């Protein structure tokens, strides 16, 4: 009896020793214990940046631009500019173009994360009529006023015959523009900065030999665009231009110090007449990154 007792007691001691010697390996099947030991590293800045870019491109792909005289709607291209704005505290945003086959834009979109931690979509309309913004196959917004108008550029050079020579011409023309933005509420008058390279280059078979879209910005945040085109028709080759708002605020543009275009501050949301700006609502099952 005593022998059995000691044998049983000895087995208990051996079992306890084995468990203690084995350490955490025998507990590895416990997910909670394993997670507590290993832990999960927070995402890196680059991982967050990449995640936001994937989301912004996906969100813009839900929209198309229908122009009444075209059978197919324009779809968004790859973002042509990624920006931040220390003035408005918008931490991440992109500029992207909706166009047909590398032609003149039908619309220019901005999509960004603002200081209120909201994702915002904005649309600049380039044609002078008959445009509908469509989201996921349904009419989303239809502008009733069109403020982007093309006109001949006075005192401009004759367009060069080669694209490589036209680019410096168009850059020089863009440098002769200046844009003032009455930014914020209350409005503060600010001179916008011209980004030296065009963010989008295009052409169309027929009359538009070459085109370039330049932007005027806070930091790198586009607030206004200037489109410059080498245009060819029966009257000959010449440069034309149009100014495109990329902000809800009042804007004034000058060319060679002479006023050429202005627009008042505009409303936001679907009641807007010429420029859409509104908080983005996610599609079903779509998550919003920060």
TrEMBL record:
Provide the leader sequence positions: 1-28
List UniProt keywords, sorted A-Z: Signal
- Name of the protein in its database record: Uncharacterized protein
User: What is the species of this protein?
Assistant: Fimbriiglobus ruber
Starting at the broadest rank, the lineage of the source organism is: Bacteria, Pseudomonadati, Planctomycetota, Planctomycetia, Gemmatales
